[in-house]
């Protein structure tokens, strides 16, 4: 295989590589309906987590208040019994003060827990509402996920078939040329080979659109050696 033929095959190899790149990119591009369904699901998950967190906090505070209320009831009962058994007015007054303090705190907690109970009921309703929305959304999301998995699998099968063709073609090209091409391609956004275009003012590299010195263009058209673009570094080919 002469140099010109090798470059022609190398350009064909690049076309196959670019096609493989497009397949990989397509695999990663989610369908819009799946992206919307995932975003909706994530939004519902976040909303559910918030309501559940708020509910746990309210329930904990409610239980703490209820425990203190129960303790206050017991203390009030003991204080009232002690007041009944008190012998003098002074002792009666002391217990009265204690009873007033305990009663004040008891009423305060009762006042706090009544709206807290209502908030707990509201949050429980919100949790159930969001769970219902998630239950409704889940089948569609699963359907879209399955369809996307099948799409990705089909693309993977296509990729592997085209990869085998690509590797078979690469095996017919001198290994040192393929290695050089792959190194350039890696650093140049997937394009290691560029055609040379004849223009009114001379010749241009179609990879970077920079005008080529005449001596460089002549070497490309002679096809006796590998020539790299002095601007972008791509391997240059004169085309068919």
Task: Explain the overall architecture.
The two termini are 16 Å apart. It is built from 5 helices and 3 strands, in the order H-H-H-H-E-E-H-E. It folds into 2 domains: 31-170, Orthogonal Bundle (Helix Hairpins); 175-237, no CATH class. With 240 residues, it is mainly α. Helix 1 (3-28) runs antiparallel to helix 3 and helix 2 packs antiparallel against helix 3 (89-170). The chain has a 3-stranded mixed β-sheet, with helices on both faces.
Q: What is the terminal-to-terminal distance?
A: 16 Å
The residue-averaged pLDDT reads 94
Which value, in Å, is the CA radius of gyration? Answer: 40 Å
- Name of the CATH class of the largest domain: Mainly Alpha
Strand order of the largest sheet: 2-1-3
CATH architecture of the largest domain: Orthogonal Bundle
Overall spatial form: rod-shaped
Please give the domain count.
2
Class computed from helices, strands and strand pairing: mainly alpha
Helix content: over 70%
Beta percentage is: 5-15%
Largest sheet features: 3 strands, mixed
Total DSSP helices: 5
Low-confidence stretches: none
Number of strands: 3
Order of helices and strands: HHHHEEHE
CATH fold-level label of the largest domain: Helix Hairpins
Précis, in short:
The protein is 76% helix and 6% strand. It is built from 5 helices and 3 strands.
List its salient traits.
240 residues; 3 strands; Helix Hairpins; mainly alpha; 76% helix; 5 helices; rod-shaped; 3-stranded mixed beta sheet; 6% strand; coiled coil; 2 domains
């Amino acid at each position: 295989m002469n140099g010109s033929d090798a470059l022609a095959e190398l350009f064909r190899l690049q076309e196959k590589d670019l096609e493989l790149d497009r397949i990989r990119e397509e695999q990663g591009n989610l369908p819009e309906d799946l992206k919307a369904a995932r975003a909706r699901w994530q939004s519902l998950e976040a909303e559910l987590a918030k309501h559940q967190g708020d509910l746990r906090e309210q329930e904990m505070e409610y239980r703490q208040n209820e425990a203190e209320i129960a303790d206050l009831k017991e203390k009030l009962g003991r204080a009232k019994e002690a007041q009944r058994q008190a012998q003098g007015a002074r002792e009666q007054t002391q217990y009265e003060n204690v009873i007033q303090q305990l009663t004040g705190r008891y009423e305060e907690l009762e006042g706090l827990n009544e709206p807290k109970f209502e908030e707990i009921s509201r949050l429980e309703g919100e949790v159930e509402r969001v769970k219902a929305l998630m239950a409704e959304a889940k089948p569609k999301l699963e359907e879209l996920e399955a369809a996307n998995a099948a799409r990705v699998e089909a693309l993977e099968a296509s990729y592997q078939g085209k990869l085998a063709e690509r590797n078979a073609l690469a095996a017919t090209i001198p290994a040192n040329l393929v290695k050089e091409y792959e190194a350039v391609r890696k650093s140049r956004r997937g394009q290691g080979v560029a055609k040379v275009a004849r223009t009114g003012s001379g010749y241009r590299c179609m990879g970077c659109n920079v005008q080529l010195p005449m001596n460089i263009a002549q070497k490309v058209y002679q096809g006796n050696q590998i020539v790299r673009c002095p601007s972008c570094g791509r391997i240059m080919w004169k085309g068919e």
